[in-house]
Specification:
The structure holds two protein chains of two kinds. Helices cover 73% and strands 0% of the residues of chain A. Classes of the chains: A mainly alpha, B mainly alpha. Chains A and B meet through α2, α3, α7, α8 and α9 of A and α4 and α9 of B.
């Protein structure tokens, strides 16, 4: 009943390209978006999370306020709309020359694809959105490290930067690692929204193949399995790192 | 200021009715799938997950993990083409089914998996002594859940469940991909017809932001009152 042989059929759109190649191309975009967006999310998320936990001194007031505003803005607008804001609205509100560069020249920056603009906006949007969520987890982690740790570090004469770098962050990242794993998975799943701004990632390719072949059930089954397999591998990978970053005395 | 001058305010008054209808659909979808999928299905799944029969536990774990490792868009597309097929098979008519119901079913089944994990941890946080006391009083499993475990679990989990509902409200914007006329889709249509990209999308963002932000502040207040 189920027949997967269509995957090896030529698409008839491009010379020598099979439907299977479309699946692989889609998967490539999904992974590229997810990995780079995750790097952006972690880098920005840690800084914003730290910013929200700075000591209550007047000089840090502005930083704390800005970081809170960042988190509230990016958490309370749907991701889909955020992608639209970056992709459609940003080029319009920038000075005309910059806007035109984003709209026309950005996609030709690299020679091997014509989707580069979509890719950049999808990655950027997804990364900034997830950064707000990562920041909240990091903040929760830092706040649950006991206050004595920070005070002890201070009495040892450590600077603020050293306290975060050597005492607070290592402990809090260990604490919130399981939650970061699930944020990483949501980012991977959210990458499918990139299809709304025209990036042909895995979900978009799946739909396209379904439209071309009418093998809707089979191709959705294939893609769902691919998503599940990658999600499982991410979970396993993050668990392996979780074990590796536990201090030696607490390993069982 | 230049930006403000360029705004064409008439687009808001002209389209207020469409936007209101779209927002109504978004809210209806959010509330219905939170109640049907989140609270009702979520509770059933959580209870089965903690059942003493291994077969139920296995099925529910598999279901929850499948839902949690698949993008919602995938689930949405699955149901969008599967449900009409199923309806056709059962009723024999090819009239099809209202898109709203397909989407509602997809949302309910998907959110049920997420809510069930929250509810399960709520159930497990109810102290052992409570359950033993209920057993000692001779309550059946159902009575235990109905009168002892679930009321305590829900009162403890309510802030987290409501936060999940706010996330669900934002997620309803995804129905844009199947063209159901929610707030997001309505915005896109108005923006494309009138060619006012900046105002339209910024307005939509403001509305989503205000609703989610105020709702999450309300949940925070509830949480504080709870912990007192």
């Amino acid at each position: 009943m189920l027949d997967f042989s269509f995957l090896l059929d030529p698409t008839g759109v491009e010379e020598g390209v099979r439907y299977l190649d479309w699946v692989i191309q889609g998967l490539k975009w999904t992974l590229l978006v997810s990995i780079v967006a995750w790097c952006i999310a972690v880098c920005i998320g840690i800084w914003v999370g730290v910013g929200r936990t700075l000591p209550p001194k007047p000089i840090f007031k502005l930083v704390r306020g800005l970081c809170t505003a960042y988190v509230e803005c990016f958490r309370n607008i749907p991701l889909l709309l955020q992608l639209f804001l970056w992709f459609y609205v940003l080029p319009e509100v920038l000075p005309v020359a910059w806007g035109n560069w984003l709209k026309q020249d950005l996609r030709h920056v690299v020679p091997w694809t014509s989707f580069f603009a979509e890719y950049v906006f999808a990655t950027w949007g997804l990364g900034l959105y997830t950064a707000a969520r990562v920041a909240e987890q990091i903040r929760a982690g830092i706040e649950s490290v006991s206050a004595g740790q920070g005070q002890a570090a201070q009495s040892l004469g450590m600077s603020l930067l050293q306290r975060y770098r050597f005492v607070l962050l290592p402990q809090s990242i260990r604490l919130v690692w399981p939650v970061l794993t699930s944020e990483c998975l949501s980012l991977f799943k959210n990458s499918s929204l990139a299809l709304t701004i025209g990036l042909l990632e895995l979900t978009a390719q799946t739909r396209q193949i379904a439209d071309y072949t009418f093998r809707t059930f089979e191709i959705f089954l294939v893609s769902t399995c691919v998503y599940v397999l990658i999600s499982l591998s991410v979970t396993w990978g993050m668990r392996a790192i979780e074990r590796a970053i536990q201090p030696k005395w607490s390993r069982s | 200021m230049m930006l403000l001058d360029r705004i064409d305010w008439s687009m808001f008054s002209n389209n207020a009715r469409y936007w209101a209808e779209g927002l109504g659909l978004s809210l209806a979808l959010c509330v219905l799938s939170a109640v049907l999928g989140g609270f009702i299905l979520g509770t059933i799944l959580a209870m089965l997950r903690l059942s003493r029969y291994a077969i139920w536990r296995t099925i529910i774990v598999a279901y929850v993990n499948l839902m949690r490792s698949t993008p919602f868009l995938m689930v949405l597309f699955w149901f969008y083409f599967l449900i009409p097929l199923l309806v056709k098979m059962v009723s024999g008519s090819s009239g099809g089914i209202n898109a709203f119901y397909s989407v509602l079913i997809a949302f309910s089944l998907f959110e049920g998996a997420y809510f069930s994990e929250i509810i399960r941890s709520g159930i497990q946080a109810v102290s052992e002594g409570q359950i033993q006391a209920a057993q000692a009083l001779g309550l059946t499993v159902w009575q235990r859940y109905r009168w002892v475990v679930l009321p305590q679990a829900f009162s403890k989990m309510l802030p987290i469940l409501l936060t999940q509902c706010i996330i669900l409200f934002q997620d309803t914007s995804v129905v844009y991909v199947v063209g159901l006329a929610d707030f997001m889709t309505t915005t896109k249509r108005i923006v494309e017809r009138d060619g006012r990209i900046v105002e339209g999308y910024l307005f939509a963002a403001t509305v989503y932001f205000l609703i989610s932000f105020l709702a999450s502040k309300a949940v925070d207040t509830l949480k504080k009152r709870h912990s007192r």
